[in-house]
Design a protein that fits this description.
- By secondary structure, the chain is an alpha+beta fold.
- It has one domain.
- Helix content is about 25%, strand content about 35%.
- It has five helices and eleven strands.
- Strands 1-2-3-5-6-11 form a six-stranded mixed β-sheet. Strands 4-10-9-8-7 form a five-stranded antiparallel β-sheet, covered by helices on one side.
- Strand 8 and strand 9 form a beta hairpin.
Length: about 220
Amino acid sequence: MQNAATTIFDPGFLEFLKIHIDVHHSIYPTVPPQGIYFEALVERTFSSIHKPMTVIKVGGTTQPRYEILFEDHRISLKTETGKGTKSESITITKLCTTEKEPWAPESLKARVLAHLSRYDTVLMLRAIWQPNLMRYQLVEIPVPLLKLLDTGTPLPIGKRTGRQSLGMDVLRGDETVFRVHFDASDGKCSIRNLRIKNCRILREWDKERPKLAVEAAPDLA
């Protein structure tokens, strides 16, 4: 795991964000904050610590839907909170959308790299489901790590007729750091099996879940 001391997120920010997530958990113990709800908690955190930030809402299919500018750092916010969340690896279900033609390896990689150039770091909230517990993680994913996808060539996978999905393992030396997948059905680029040891765990803590809540927990994506 990379040294958390190099992060732009200081202890005060992380503490207040944890407090806001804990409040959400106390109300919704089986529904971790996803998407716009996590974004709202991050906004509230910056307000709580009186740090200036700018919310940038942008359009377009390959652009981040939501971005924060803080001290000249462009931050993309992501969540991974489903029951299938793994402790040792990260999945980014939708890094961006790349549905434009041509559907070719180099064109797809170029669009993803253009997307990644729009921000400097990724802040992800993760929820790892454990018996009677929810383990929360705040993780910083370095953008240069994701840009390693430029080092290989995605190949066709699956049995779909017509336009085929593409995928490849992304290597750094002899290490497989993640797998990139281009879905031909919806044009999404996803990142799978991103090793968490190559990211920064900024904060990690457990919250109890009521026994009845464990039984009724929804299967979040």
